[in-house]
Amino acid sequence: MNGIERDVIVVGAGPAGSICSAYLAKAGVDVLLLDKEIFPRDKACGDMITEKFVRHANQLEITDRLDKMSVFVNQLLMVSDGGREALVPYECYGTKRRELDQLLVETAVNWGAEFRPGCRVTGLIHELGKVCGVKVLTGGAETEIRAKVVIGADGALSIVAKEAGLMREAAGAMSIGMSAYFEGVRLDRNIAIGQYSAYGAVFFDRTFAPGYLWILPSGDGGVLRGYCNVGMVVDYADGSRKSHRNLEQRFEDWLSRSTRGSSMLSGARRVSPWRKGKQTYITQNMKKTAAGLILIGDASSSMLPLRGDGLSAAADTARAAADTAWEALKQNDFSDALLHHYYRSHQILMDGAELEDELKRIYLIRESMFDPQGVDQAVETIRKNQALAKEIL
Ligand SMILES: Cc1cc2nc3c(=O)[nH]c(=O)nc-3n(C[C@H](O)[C@H](O)[C@H](O)COP(=O)(O)OP(=O)(O)OC[C@H]3O[C@@H](n4cnc5c(N)ncnc54)[C@H](O)[C@@H]3O)c2cc1C
């Protein structure tokens, strides 16, 4: 393939890269999707898919398949540090990431994208101030592939963002977490009786402050078998207050303290390794385009802190980047000015005063998570006034 220029190369076949490739291929664009892994592969995640993400599944005509491989969760049991509980309405899918990511890669290929697994991108090719391709390591051999537009979808540790000089990780704008699957979790039969009446539990415990732990039924039949995704994320709010190591030890500590947690997990067994991962949060300073280059998904740090809906941000940015690349190809203009203008015009990425206000609000909530009594009080208030839950979740 050396010497042939592709229209678009997408680096990373996670949800952002696969969805972007699917949209591009659907619009008739020549797109090459690369990933260092062999699929199917797993990834640390809570498996929680919100409505925003499902809208993209609709547009890519895979809602039926998504539905079949998911649990539909319609309530969240919020549990505070002191054991207070509030059951609130909350809708999401619980879908195993291994299956979701495989479905999305297949969708990109079905729409006409070319997918090459086992291809690690090691760098970018620059010419005359423009990104014009990638260096790829495949089976020990390094090759170069050129493209009019490169889309970086290679996750939170993006090599593409780093190579392009776009990585601007603000201190505190990240969290770390881990997840694993458990079988035989005891779900309360009064609130989890089938695929369409499942609940997930979220624990706001001092062990993870500022952060949370979840137990979420996942995958087709998850409720019946008590097959759940169990995981936690801890915000990097202030390194001096909490160490971000020893998540497994902290999980054990939580389990020994939490009455509800130990009752749900007694008799359950972990059936996968713990997988660790990092989430990068939206900041004012991170630039997401350069000449010939667009960043999407986790590579673009587009998620709001504490929200946990990285998959929706991945899908939204994927759609915006696909439209932007399509416009650039139409106008044969791959300048940063054009890419920035069209990417921004989607208004999926908050910025300026709006972002500042939202971040202030979220950081206030995050700060209050350090106070166990405050968390107890908050859950009690939500129990009495469920409308509040909608505002916070
Ligand atoms: C513990 C945890 C729990 C989470 N829970 C949720 C949740 O419940 N709901 C939710 O919406 N979000 C959740 N998130 C966030 C969500 O997982 C991410 O936002 C989402 O995976 C972003 O998708 P992506 O495609 O941008 O990146 P990724 O899913 O990370 O995909 C990146 C891809 O790029 C590939 N790649 C990386 N480097 C290279 C390279 N050099 N060359 C080629 N390929 C490369 C990788 O193999 C990978 O396939 C969670 C994150 C963590 C860490």
Brief overview, please?
The chain has 393 residues and is of the alpha/beta class. Helix content is 35%, strand content 28%. A hairpin with a 2-residue loop joins strand 7 and strand 8 (130-138).
Describe this structure in words.
The chain has 393 residues and is α/β, with parallel strands linked by helices. It has two domains: 5-47 and 98-169 and 282-349, FAD/NAD(P)-binding domain (3-Layer(bba) Sandwich), CATH 3.50.50; 70-95 and 174-279 and 357-392, D-Amino Acid Oxidase, Chain A, domain 2 (2-Layer Sandwich). The protein contains 13 helices and 17 strands. It has helices at 15-26, 51-59, 63-68, 97-111, 159-163, 222-225, 247-257, 259-265, 310-331, 336-345, 352-368, 372-384, 387-392, and strands at 5-11, 31-34, 48-49, 70-80, 85-95, 114-116, 120-127, 130-138, 141-152, 174-183, 198-204, 211-217, 228-235, 269-270, 275-280, 289-290, 293-295. Strands 3, 4, 5, 10, 11, 12, 13, 14 and 15 form a nine-stranded mixed sheet that branches. Strands 1, 2, 6, 7, 8, 9, 16 and 17 form an eight-stranded mixed sheet that branches. The longest helix has 22 residues, at 310-331. The radius of gyration is 21 Å and the shape is globular. The N and C termini lie far apart (47 Å). The structure holds flavin-adenine dinucleotide. Flavin-adenine dinucleotide binds at residues 11-17, 34-37, 43-48, 120-121, 153-155, 159, 177-179, 231, 233, 277-279, 297-299, 303, 308-312, 314.
